[in-house]
Specification:
4 helices; 134 residues; 78% helix; mainly alpha
Length: 134
Amino acid sequence: MPLSEHEQRMLEEMERNLYHNDADFVATVGTRRGKPNYTMIVVGILIAILGVGIIVTGVVVAQPLVGVAGFIVMFAGALLAISPPRRSGPPEEPSADERASASAKSAAGPARGGFMDRINERWDKRQDGRDERG
């Protein structure tokens, strides 16, 4: 059964709000900024190779503890190689445009919450209506 025009508009508005909220979430949680630190990647790979060598040594000398130590070294090297770059220096100060958009978002915050409240109330009414009919 196709959606009515009103329902299509509501769905499109909900999608826009969801995308906007997810974009805010991604921005607040943090994204990977800056260039990757190739030195740390190379050092991590070399440490992982050293760990593999220690594992092979543990197998050759038949010492399980040496093999376990090699695995730990290899795992630490892999973590070092794939870890995100760390930000150095003080946190960036938001620009004037970012501050203006943030204040506009905070001013629009209650209206957005009101919209979602209205949608939830409508959903509850529809669910209650279905229960009474069926």
